Amino acid sequence: MLTILWLLQSNRRVTAKQLAEKLEINIRTVYRYIDALCASGVPIIADSGHNGGYSLLGEFKDAPLVFDLDEQKALIQAAAFAQEAGYPYGEKLSQAVAKLKMYTNQEQLRQIHLHEQGLDVIHPQADASQTHLLQEVEVAVAKSQTIRMQYQKGYGTVTESRDLDPYGIVSWKSKWYVVGHCHLRSTIRSFRIDRIRLLETMDQIFERPADFSARKFLLSGVMPDTEKPDEMISVKITGKEQALDDLCGHWFLVHTLVERTQFEAHFRMEERSVKFHLPYFLLTYGGTLQIKEPQLLKRLMIEVSRNLHQFYAAAELD
């Protein structure tokens, strides 16, 4: 069938008899192959009559039938990233990669194996049990169908029913999220896929907002709002150069960095982030970093450390 496609690409019109003679096969076999190609989506035109025959429709004649080595390498290496991120159609992706390798030539296959062995992806995989659930949500997004889910809030066991118009799914920090319009809250919300306990696809169809980005919405909830300077707090931290490099490059702080010298970093952050997130984050750096300002953050670090000490001291006595 691939040979038939090449012949159709290289000739304006080819008859079934010419194809049968070229391939040394029965003309009935040619008919079966043509039918199979048409069923797979190849736009073949069949003209009857004295000057009839088979030809390809329009721009399909200029479409490449194979990927070159760099394209194959890129697809296979991208598949490695997708698999590690818990891509919902991992089995089909593996089949596609296997098919790609099967029909490439020996030299390309050797090169592909060399590049494949030289690239590893370490990424905490999504729970395999969530694959089917993630597929259902993805289909609902594509078909613009409302979903009804039993959603677990926080770390408890209580669930609540939510109807959601799913606008998109996002993989973020080893977790999958669905973003859409929540009927209960009448606003756009994000929900973790791994906290959905039951899912039902409804018959209700919704209209997705034009130019909506699930990615931008999700990031807006974790990145600082720099358009509100009156709610921002200046944070200055000193310490060892390597620790500061790691601190400034972290996703939580990279967008808040104002100035960096060899042994000091200056950030501007939202007050709520400084109060509720930053102290616990800085604990992981131990004594490699010191807070220069504000005094509020120093007091919070003392309070958090004291509470942790009291908690584990009490646990040790028990």
Automatic annotation (TrEMBL):
Domain (Helix-turn-helix type) ranges: 2-54
Xref: InterPro entries: CBASS_pafABC_assoc_protein (IPR051534), HTH_11 (IPR013196), WH-like_DNA-bd_sf (IPR036388), WH_DNA-bd_sf (IPR036390), WYL_dom (IPR026881)
Record-linked PROSITE patterns: WYL
Residue ranges of domain WYL in the record: 133-199
Keyword DNA-binding recorded: yes
Coiled coil (UniProt feature): none
Organism domain of life: Bacteria
Keywords: DNA-binding
GO molecular function terms attached to this record: DNA binding
This protein's name: DNA-binding transcriptional regulator
Species the sequence originates in: Paenibacillus marchantiophytorum
